[in-house]
Amino acid sequence: MANVRLVETSLRDGNQCLWGALGIDTARTLTIAPMMERCGFKAIDFTTSTHMGVAVRYKQEDPWERIRGMAEACKTTPLQFLSTGFRFISWETATPEFMELAFRTLQTNGISRFALADPMNDAASNVEVAKMVKRSGGGQVVGALVYTISPIHDDAHYAEAARVMAASPDIDALYIKDPGGLLTSKRARTLIPAIMAEIGDKPLELHAHCTIGLAEQAYLEGVDLGATAVQCASGGAADGTSNPPMQRMIANLRELGHTVEIDDDAVAEVSRYFTALAEAEGLPTGHPLPFDAAYFHHNLPGGMVGTMRRHLADHGAAHLEQAVIEEMGRVRRELGWVIVMTPFAQMLQTQAMLNVTGKERWGVIPDEVIRFAIGKFGHPVMPVDPEVMDRIMANPRTKELQAESGMADLKTLRQKIGAHLSDEEFLLRATMPEAQVDAMKAAGPAERVYNPETRGVMDLLRTVLSRRDLTEITVEKEGFKLEVEA
User: Fold this and answer.
1) How far apart are CA 208 and CA 389, in angstroms?
2) Which of 72, 183, 346, 430 is spaced 20 to 30 Å from 64 by Cα?
3) pTM of the predicted model as reported, rounded to 2 decimal places
4) Whole-angstrom distance, CA of residue 100 vs CA of residue 98
């Protein structure tokens, strides 16, 4: 029987999968931070560059301020940043010097754990990024084995990637990252032993989604096979397309004889908070979903399903959902069995929609798909289908994209954007539109306190105060009555 540690994912992955990364702001984060610190989690899956961009773009909040506030509250619980290759906030591939500055600034502000998930499962690239993290401040590094299903992603593929990363002194642990929730107990029984045979005494963690109801059993199987930590969300931010529910996983682990050392009262309070938050803000809460074998074909992460449905509805094409899903499987095969995770999930979805709604397949090819095919995101594991590649190479836009020089070097960017800026502001201005950063700065410090129980009352007050046709207001409840006349 194992002593199992827990990584809490509500603020990052639960928020992203169920709430489109928009359900959390600084106040909602810092309000629950002290209770999350009490729980005894191994780490908190806290943010990624996508969420930092969302903070600026949609919330007009400084993501660095949010990180510092969380780190101040969580002095003993590591905060995790998810990094997907040589990319920070923008889709543009960054230079090594730029990425090293980003990692150093993240650590300076309070991030102490980095999950490295290369979109191509390029283990050698993860090793290089891990070196940058260590040079930048020495934070803990967890290398991802991104799980997917294809003819080339067999146990040997993952064992070799695990061997390469485990051999690096800069990678402290590994984790199986299953964004599609596709790992079955049956596959775990061969995959996990193959990985464990290659990683020696480095710990293995599990991260999966409940999208088709497989994640919890895969976790329990994985713990039996040697995994030492599982990643779960809490309350209303768990289940559905999100990660397994924290309290249910704790109960099942203990029932099967494993030890989980955690503050149960604090865990319960965290779960209640995220449920109350969702109810107060009208956000969807996760619930158990049925098994759907179609996911083994298209591998679409659960969070992307909602995005796809919204895009189709916006274009009056909701009836084409099944056709787009089937087309995603074909596009994925033609692009060399690309792993369906950010940024490739978005590329596959867009190309599939264009193929289904356009006059012909591959008649329109977005820039990002061209960049992928010509190696701007790294080297595809398998060659792109020859006919598709011929179409891409014949596209006039391809020559223009081949000539792209990529992100400028750090010195040039500093001179262009402003040598006087702090590293934090420089990194935002180098990767985001100037107007969005200006709006964030103009908004001032973010609110730091949030109470979901008062949301309804505050909304009512704002509505009443905005009315100009009222001459009398009465507020009444049992034992209390307040009358106000204009």
Assistant:
1) 33
2) 346
3) 0.89
4) 5
pLDDT along the chain (486 residues), means of 10: 94 93 96 98 96 96 98 98 89 88 97 94 94 92 95 95 98 96 97 98 97 96 98 97 97 97 98 97 94 84 70 83 88 91 84 91 94 84 92 94 85 92 96 97 96 71 69 76 72
d(CA 2, CA 128): 32
Nearest CA among 377, 378, 383, 374 for reference residue 402? 374
The rounded distance, in Å, linking the Cα atoms of 422 and 417 is 11
Is there a contact between 204 and 195 (Cβ–Cβ < 8 Å)? yes
**Residue 159 belongs to what H/E stretch?**
helix 155-166
Asked if 446 contacts 120 with a C-beta cutoff of 8 angstroms, the reply is: no
Lookup result for tokens 């943010």: 47
Give the chain's domains with CATH numbers.
5-281 (3.20.20.70), 295-402 (1.10.472.90)
State phi, psi for 308 to the nearest 5 degrees. Answer: -60, -45
Phi, psi angles (nearest 5°) of residue 412: -65, -40
